C-alpha cells in the first residue's frame, strides 16, 4: 500500500488547548507524526493539486479565512495561537466581519481548535497528501494511506473545529465521485463522530456516510452523531450512525462494524474512504473505548472483505507511544495480512 506524507504537516504546532476549563498541552501534537513514521517507514511526498479539489468541498470565503486567520490575529496585536471565544449559535448566517474574533467565531464551532502560524500550510499539505493517496488508488492500486495531520473529519464546508480545518476524507470522496468512481462510501471509525463529513454529504444520495463512535450524549462533538440522524432529501438513508457506550470492547464494536459493512455493500459502493482514528485504543488519553492493537488489525481485516478500492485518511489517536503500532496493525489487516 502506498503511503503519503508531507513534512509541511508538522508545522501546525499550537501550544495548548482549553480542556474542562483549564489549559492543557495540545493533544493533536506534531509528535504524533514521529510515532507513525517510525512504525510505517518511508512515505512518499504528495503532489500539489492546488486549491481546486479543496474548493470542490469547502467554501472560498472559508478557505480565505483559514489562509489569513493567524496573520489577522497578529495584526490585531495578539500573540500565540488564535482562539475564538464567541460563537453565533442562534441564526448563524454569512456575515462579512472584519474583526478576527468575529471571524474565528463565524468559521469555528469550538474554542479548543487553536490556529497557529503553520496551520494553513499543514492543512493544505494534509489535503494534498490525501489527494495523492487517491491518485495511487485511481491509478490502479488497491489501497492507499494518507498520513494526514491535522485531521479533517470535524471540518464542514465552511467551518473548522475538533482539531480539523480541511476535510481530507470528504475531499477524497468528492474527487472519487468527480472521477466517475462512485458511488462512494465513507466509513468513519475514529472515536469521535465525523460531523463535518456527515454535514457535507447529508443531502447527497451518492455518498454514504457510516460512522461508529462514542455516544455524543457523553462525548465530543455532542451535537451530531446521534442514531436518529439518517440524512435528508436525496440523502435520506445515506447517513448511518452507530453510537457506542464508553467502555465498549471489541465484543461490542464488532457487531457495529459488521452492520456498517453490510450497509456499505447494500448501498452498492464502488469506492471506499476510511476515516481512521486510533483513539478507539484502550489507552487513549482523551477517549474511552477499549480496543486493543490486535483489534485494530482485525478491524482492518474485516474491512478488507469489502474488496473495494480504498483510501485511508488519518484522523485522531492521541496515545503517542502506541499510535504507530496501532496504525500499522490496522493497515496490515487492511492489506489482508
Ligand atoms: C479530533 B478527532 C477539549 C476536548 C475536545 C476535541 C476532540 C477532537 C478530536 N480539549 N476535544 O476526532 O480525533
Ligand atoms: Zn477522534
Explain what this protein looks like in three dimensions.
The chain is an alpha/beta fold and 337 residues long. It has a single domain (2-46, 118-336), classed as Histone deacetylase domain (Arginase, Chain A, 3-Layer(aba) Sandwich), CATH 3.40.800.20. Helices cover 36% and strands 13% of the residues. It is built from ten helices and nine strands. The strands form two sheets. The protein has a seven-stranded parallel beta sheet with strand order 1-4-9-8-5-6-7, sandwiched between helices. It has a two-stranded antiparallel sheet with strand order 2-3. Residues 17, 19, 112, 151, 154, 162-163, 190, 192, 220, 277, 279, 315-316 line the site of {5-[(3-aminopropyl)amino]pentyl}boronic acid.
Strand and helix layout:
Layout: E1 2-4, E2 16-19, E3 22-25, H1 31-40, H2 52-55, H3 60-75, H4 100-107, H5 119-138, E4 143-146, H6 168-178, E5 184-188, H7 195-201, E6 207-214, E7 239-244, H8 250-267, E8 271-276, H9 293-304, E9 310-314, H10 320-334
Parallel strand pairs: 1-4, 4-9, 5-6, 5-8, 6-7, 8-9
Antiparallel strand pairs: 2-3
Helix pairs in contact: 1-10, 3-4, 5-6, 8-9, 9-10
Bound molecules: {5-[(3-aminopropyl)amino]pentyl}boronic acid and zinc ion (ZN).
The site of {5-[(3-aminopropyl)amino]pentyl}boronic acid (OKP) has 14 residues, from strand 2.
Amino acid at each position: 500500500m502506498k503511503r503519503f506524507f508531507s513534512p509541511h504537516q508538522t508545522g501546525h504546532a499550537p501550544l495548548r488547548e482549553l480542556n474542562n476549563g483549564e489549559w492543557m498541552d495540545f493533544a493533536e501534537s506534531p509528535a504524533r507524526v514521529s510515532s507513525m513514521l517510525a512504525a510505517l517507514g518511508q512515505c512518499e511526498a504528495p503532489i500539489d493539486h492546488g486549491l481546486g479539489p479543496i474548493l470542490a468541498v469547502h467554501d472560498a470565503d472559508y478557505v480565505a479565512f483559514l489562509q489569513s486567520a493567524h496573520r489577522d490575529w497578529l495584526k490585531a496585536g495578539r500573540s500565540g495561537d488564535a482562539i475564538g471565544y464567541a460563537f453565533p449559535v442562534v441564526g448563524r448566517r454569512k456575515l462579512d466581519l472584519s474583526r478576527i474574533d468575529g471571524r474565528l467565531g463565524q468559521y469555528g464551532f469550538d474554542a479548543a481548535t487553536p490556529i497557529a502560524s503553520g496551520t494553513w500550510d499543514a492543512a493544505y499539505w494534509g489535503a494534498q497528501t490525501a489527494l495523492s493517496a487517491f491518485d495511487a488508488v485511481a491509478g490502479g492500486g488497491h489501497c492507499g494511506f494518507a498520513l494526514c495531520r491535522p485531521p479533517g473529519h470535524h471540518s464542514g464546508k465552511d467551518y473548522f473545529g475538533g482539531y480539523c480545518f480541511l476535510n481530507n476524507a470528504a475531499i477524497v470522496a468528492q474527487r472519487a465521485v468527480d472521477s466517475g468512481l462512485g458511488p462512494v462510501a465513507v466509513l468513519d471509525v475514529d472515536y469521535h463522530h465525523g460531523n463535518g463529513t456527515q454535514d457535507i454529504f447529508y443531502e447527497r444520495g451518492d455518498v454514504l456516510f457510516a460512522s461508529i463512535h462514542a455516544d455524543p450524549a457523553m462525548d465530543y462533538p455532542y451535537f451530531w452523531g446521534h442514531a436518529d440522524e439518517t440524512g435528508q432529501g436525496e440523502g435520506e438513508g445515506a447517513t448511518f450512525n452507530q453510537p457506542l457506550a464508553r467502555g465498549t470492547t471489541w465484543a461490542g464494536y464488532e457487531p457495529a462494524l459488521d452492520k456498517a459493512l453490510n450497509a456499505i455493500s447494500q448501498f452498492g459502493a464502488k469506492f471506499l474512504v476510511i476515516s481512521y482514528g486510533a483513539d478507539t485504543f484502550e489507552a487513549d488519553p482523551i477517549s474511552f473505548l477499549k480496543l486493543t492493537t490486535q483489534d485494530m488489525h482485525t478491524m482492518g481485516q474485516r474491512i478488507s472483505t469489502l474488496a473495494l478500492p480504498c483510501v485511508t485518511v488519518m484522523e485522531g489517536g492521541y496515545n503517542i507511544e502506541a499510535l504507530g503500532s496501532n496504525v500499522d496493525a490496522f493497515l496490515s489487516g487492511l492489506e489482508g495480512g
